[in-house]
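Lab notebook, bench 4. Still working through the backlog of constructs that have no structural model yet. Next entry is a single chain of 570 residues. Request: give me the structure tokens for it.
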Amino acid sequence: MKTMIALIRKDLLQHFGTFVNIRASLRDKKSRQRLFGYAVGAILIIVYSFYFIKIMTLSYAELPTVALQRGFLFSAFMVHQFMLLIFSILTIIGTYYFNDDVKIMLRLPIETRQIFKSKLFTLTLENMFWWLALTVPMVIHFGRVTGQGIVFYISAALGSIAITVITLSVLTLITVLIMSLIVKLPGAKNIVQYFSIFVGLAIGISIQLYVQKGQRMDGDESVLKLVDALTKPGEFWFPHAKKLTDGLLAGGGEMILTVVLLVILAYGMIQITARLGSSIFLRSSLQEGSRKKHKKRIIGEKDYQKNKPYISIAKKELREIFKTPIYLYQYIAMGMLLPILILMPSLSKGIRMDQIHFMREEFMLIYETADVQAKLFILFGAIFIGWAWGLFIGVQQPSFTSITREGKRIWLLQSLPVAAKDQVRGRVLTSLVLQLITALPLFLVILFMLMPPWTLLIGFLFGMSTSIYLMVHLALWMDIRNPKLLWYQPKEAINKGGKSFFYVFGIMIFVGVQIYAFVKPALALGLMEKGIFIQIAFALWMVLYWVFSYVMQNICADTLEKKITEYSAE
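Model written out:
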């Protein structure tokens, strides 16, 4: 038991160290900054939950029927379970098979079963974010509307944790079993990660299409039909969530008994998963270790003499990202998913080629019959759309973790005879390549739907490149100044100890300030109606972007040259 507590404490310090040791965190400047950041994040989550409840209140103000009450409450638990199904498999693989921490502990005199239990505890904590963001607001709204007491909320919380543990235990056992069957194959772990990503995306898109079709149903009972259509498959895949819903609706002694049974079942699943999973995992890890007889090739000085140094840096980074699925998914997912979501209403209704041809003809007719001023306005519109899209996909910026991803190999970066300017250029080039891949789906959608003239396509690409180029340098500068080099699995490098959330929030503020600074003076001077002035102002804005990008490139190189000797992964 002492060993188990020590392992859990170690994981808590590793993942939530700022909170576990508050007294020490307050004495350290960086820890105090993290605490402040987490406090801001907590406030944002509370505000989000408040507005989420408000939306729920408008949508389901009274929950008039028993069927709607049951469907709404079950949806509160089902949405969390679906999120686990979509995202946690990748996390489980990373936790057990791409985690240096686990590899180290396997060499120590610690039972594999205890390692398994401690990691399952950590997985549960990490995956409760979706519960806080989605389930809790819905349960609170349900309790307020139906007049529930404190016992209901406590039972719902304990039951939610229990069904989360059950789902994660089953998924962990299945994942470990699959990995044990294919671990002998070269690159098998990466293949499984890629497969889990595509399965998660397919499930998410299928659910969205299902909802879109349900929303098109007419009649007074359309909401009930939609709820019924969504809950039926959920009840099949998550019977434990169905049992919790029925128990909470029954109330009284049946509610308490249901929660107690689910807690017992969760404890039993932990024991079964730890007993079976640990032995399978240990066996597969030994098999994998015996298979790895070849020496890992370390990129050294000669590799940087074959090509220009910044090209070699870019190639190294791209290889690393493409062979680590969680990196690639994080950096291109947003750009891949949004075009699908844009097309979702059309996909749910069915797209006919005659409709697409009609749209193309109408667009070309408008463009060809327009005068020079109108064509110029359309061109600036294409540039603006590209600029806005570049800002959007720039939120998931590879350069924000460029130095962080070096991790314990930072000594290699410090020892290579490569100038700081080449380091910056190579990492910028990596981000630009990935950002162009991310932008490709939307570009193809525009090309397929409208077939616009090449001038508009070039304008779109120019606007997108302008915003992306600046975002790349800003993100790289932030990572150079404060990288997180001590991490044990790739997802920690991406999150950077929670800093990625604040980076995204900061970028949103940055974009908002820009729009305000551009629109406010134009409105005050009455220039919004004069298209030529807006076009000139926007053109100057683009020039400022390129100038600032050049300045930031030099700042990044100077900062890296000063900081590189200070980096340490200890």
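Notes after review: The CA atoms of residues 80 and 129 lie 9 Å apart. Residues 215-223 have pLDDT under 50 and may be disordered. Flag for follow-up if needed.
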